[in-house]
## 1
Amino acid sequence: MDRRMEALKILKKYRNQDYYYLGEGFSGVVFHDNRSVYKVHIPLANNSYGESDGLLYLREKLDVFKNSKYFYEVDLFKIDDIYILRY
């Protein structure tokens, strides 16, 4: 299964609705649902940059911007051991 279809399958587990493909890069595949953007972290290859460490760091910092009038709400969660960044 290709990354795009895998990411869409994971998002459908989160919420069974329509998602629209935006693109993909090294670390993941990006969709939107007309309300939020979802980056499903499925890397092309393993790397030595500590991507999951970076995601865990981000999760620790999410409350810094909570209820801010200057930043969009950001959420990080897991489905089937795959991180999804929602903003």
## 2
Amino acid sequence: MPGAGLDKNKVLATSHFIRDEHIPLVEEPIGATLLKAAEQFGEKIALVDGQIERAARRTWTYAELAEEARKVASALLQHFQPGQRVAIWSASSPEWVLIEFGASLAGLVLVTVNPAYLAHELKYVLRQSRAHGIILQDCHRGRDLGEVLQEVRAELPDLDVVIPLSTWDAFLASAQLGTLPEVEAGDLAQIQYTSGTTGFPKGPVFSTGG
């Protein structure tokens, strides 16, 4: 929870901070943590859109963020089964955050992909992670990411679903709200690839909690 157990008067003098072992670790899925935060901090601001090109910045309260994350989870489950790997190929955005929470609530494994990757790097990560689908930003720094994906699509037999972020409204409209799957703290949640400066990227895996 935000600010839980933090000493506001403590000054950090080093880059390495040893946690207070008297504060127990939270062992629960990230989606469940969001739902609890929504109950406790409902009308407080949780997320602000930092994209400067918009005339007015979008904001979400904790309650709104949780509600939309549930909708994202339901929309994802129209395309994927719990346990499947879904890649997100995009720069930071509110939609990225919503997909992260939605994937957790849906019991999916989120594969994070650097939007600067070239075609061969993208192919390696999607094949190595066995991604069943990808959600991608349409354009990043002048590059059409959809075109880059098409360069290697034929070499990705496991990739069945492609969702451009430009179709976000239609994607959300596909949600059929209902009961979401049970997600345990030890379930696989994310595969986060390294920069790959000394070879191909490595894909450390993270559980949903603990």
## 3
Amino acid sequence: RSGINLYGDFTLCSQGEDIVSGLVHTLPITESQRRDYYSDCSLSLESEFPEIYNALLELATQLVDTYGFVHQEIEFTFESDNPDDLYVLQTRNQKLKKQKNLSRFVPAPDKMKLAGRGIGIGGGALSGILTFDMEDLKEAMNNHPGEKRILVRPDTVPDDIPLIFSCDGLITGRGGATSHAAVTAASLGKVCVVSCKGLTVNEADKRCSINGINFKSGDGISIDGSLGNVYKGVYEIQYE
């Protein structure tokens, strides 16, 4: 068996720009993704559309094993569960950013106050001050220069790119791992948790709630870009 694996997201009855814009909740490609990161989701491309999944896996295998390409990002659409109705829009080399430092929280996860879970991007652990907009980011930089700044957004729209450049980490309620903003954040080495279920954001009051746990601007918050966990409070981090 080839060592090729698929990872990503898709959505039903909508357009590709809906995923790219970060305005929809996405579905996982594989069953392993669904089990690990989509606890409230009952389907994946692999389980619901196995012929489409296998056709994509075969294509990826050919690109890498037969033609010698590096890891590929594949954009596709399909009109039915028949593989003849699968259309590949484009493929491109995946840009893999090597982490300079591996980081993890010193306390065990069961010793931390878990607020919610989403899809972890970028890997690593991050603790810092919760921010909602550019005003918060600038204020935190001026008043707490040594603190990391974690941005919370309801979604990952492209308009948020300037905010993503300024923050150290990102939490969103909607949007998958392949939205423009999430991809940008990951390429910049930011620690991210996207599609955090149970997150509601009140931008006007600069408050948010994750599964009934309330946060406001300036509160301490921590995220795990590997596990996809969001924790209330600030915790010690170990770098390796």
